[in-house]
Write a structure and sequence with these properties.
This protein is mainly alpha-helical. Helices cover 75% and strands 2% of the residues. The chain has 19 helices and two strands. It has helices at 10-21, 24-36, 40-68, 74-78, 85-118, 125-132, 136-154, 157-184, 190-197, 220-234, 241-246, 255-283, 295-305, 310-344, 348-362, 364-368, 370-400, 402-409, 416-446, and strands spanning 207-210, 214-217. Strands 1-2 form a two-stranded antiparallel sheet. The relative contact order is 0.20.
């Protein structure tokens, strides 16, 4: 087995973890999920989920990773609980599943960079998206995006991932900040800010009935599973990524401090992206929630087409989206690469290319038809992510227990009371929140009038 790599600096780990979290989940998924599921109401539920569920769950993944110093699958065996390897396998499979269609969207971003430079989408933004989002061109760009991801991961932890994210993450924040200031100056943006930042409290209701099995109703039945899973998606939880990244961390680092940094930074970038995209929807007169996965591309392309410097602004914006997409995608590929390197002594460049090829193949349906991409996305949000996080919480809360508290306190000045409080939070409130999220997702997938589990055949 080859010698295991480590992060060169603490900042490198934090930026890599932030880079994993700050990706298309923030800039593509968060704005269009927010606009589709209630605006500010979705934002409120998301923030509660990110801090109340995402933060404790991230600490759980960090503990598993650093204590084991192994990948997301082998970690459970190293910790003396081989029968729980299924949790790691599920996480790796979830990351594999998500990256297959995530890469397709990354290909769209590549196309829009070129379209911004040439002005190709200016005449008909909606028609342009329809042409490039599915079919042979989308398939080719899906392949190109995966080649970029493979090249970075093949470079290793310190020379590849760490160096790349140290450049990517600050660039994302700076460019999004500039764009948010620009959007603020546009006439017609004010209703967008109201929709995004002023919640309607009457929509924050949920009721349950038993007939004889429990069923849920109310405005929150759709919002909760997507908002909570958005927190998981944007924080890279339930995919094995944070376990893998934490496995390269030394015992002298504060996992608690690092996790707070990642969660706060990630949420701030998501809000910043919302302050760019959602007001633009209103500026263009586009109804929130319309357009689905292509809403970001169509609405922004329409805005850029009407600007005097639209080509430049468009190219800059989609360049930052590409940076964000790559920073998350490399973490998902690293999860499976790490397993092969740890357990089989595989050479990183070769195994990165081989696994990247398999992910490309799984993404072919999503590249060929956006209906398949939506199906893949719904299955990830409503089933795979909450189920994977549930497994992590059950293991840490009710199986591993006290050793998890001891590991959390390593490298930290916190007292034991904080660690015990975290453990009981994981065992109770956080666990129940994830179970509710999973139950609502299963209800939609399997028991709705038009079950979402049915693929678009």
């Amino acid at each position: 087995m080859s010698q295991r790599e480590t992060w060169a600096t603490r900042a490198g780990f934090i930026l890599a973890a932030v880079g994993s979290a700050v990706g298309l989940g923030n800039i593509w998924q968060f704005p269009f999920k927010t606009s589709e599921y209630g605006g500010a109401t979705f934002l409120v539920v998301y923030l509660v989920a990110a801090l109340g569920i995402g933060l404790p769950a991230m600490l759980a993944e960090f503990v598993i990773g650093r204590k084991s110093n192994l990948n997301a699958i082998s970690a459970f065996e190293k910790l003396g609980h081989r029968s729980w390897k299924w949790v790691g396998i599920l996480g790796v499979a979830t990351g594999f599943w998500i990256l297959s269609y995530y890469s397709v969207v990354g290909g769209w971003v590549l196309r829009y960079i070129g379209g911004s430079v040439t002005g190709a989408y200016f005449a008909d933004p909606a028609g342009y998206f329809g042409q490039v989002s599915a079919g042979p061109e989308a398939l080719a760009l899906h392949a190109l995006f995966m080649i970029f991801v493979v090249a970075i991961v093949a470079g290793g932890v310190e020379d590849g991932i760490e160096k790349a994210t140290k450049l990517m993450v600050p660039s994302i924040v700076v460019i999004l900040g500039v764009l948010a200031v620009w959007v603020f100056t546009l006439p017609g943006a004010a209703p967008g800010y109201s929709y995004f930042l002023s919640p309607d409290l009457s929509t924050l209701s949920l009721s349950v009935s038993f007939d004889p099995l429990p069923s849920f109703s109310g405005p929150l039945t759709e919002i909760i599973p997507f908002a909570v899973s958005q927190a998981f998606f944007s924080l890279s939880l339930g995919m094995g990524a944070m376990i893998t990244y934490a496995s390269y961390v030394g015992d002298d680092q504060s996992l608690f401090g690092d996790s707070i940094t990642v969660v706060v930074f990630n949420s701030a970038v998501g809000i910043l992206a919302g302050l760019v995209v959602i007001p633009l929807l209103f500026v263009q007169g586009i109804e929130p929630g319309s357009g689905g996965a292509g809403a970001l591309f169509v609405s922004l392309a329409t805005a850029f087409a009407e600007l005097p410097a639209g080509r430049l602004v468009g190219a800059v914006f989609f360049a930052v989206v590409l940076i964000a997409a790559l920073s998350s995608a490399i973490s998902l590929l690293e999860v499976v690469v790490s397993y092969a390197v740890d357990n089989y002594g595989a050479r990183r460049p070769q195994i990165s290319a081989a696994l990247g090829g398999l992910i490309f193949l799984l993404g072919i349906p999503s590249a060929w038809d956006t209906a398949w991409l939506t199906w893949f996305d719904n299955l990830a949000y409503q089933l795979l992510l909450p189920l994977s996080v549930l497994g992590i919480l059950l293991f840490i809360g009710w199986v591993y227990g006290r050793p998890a508290v001891e590991e959390l306190l390593n490298g930290s000045s916190m007292g034991s009371g904080v660690g015990v409080s975290w453990l009981w939070l994981v065992r109770t409130v956080v666990l129940l929140g994830v179970i509710l999220t999973l139950a609502l997702g299963v209800q939609t997938l399997f028991f709705a009038e038009n079950p979402a589990i049915v693929p678009p055949l």
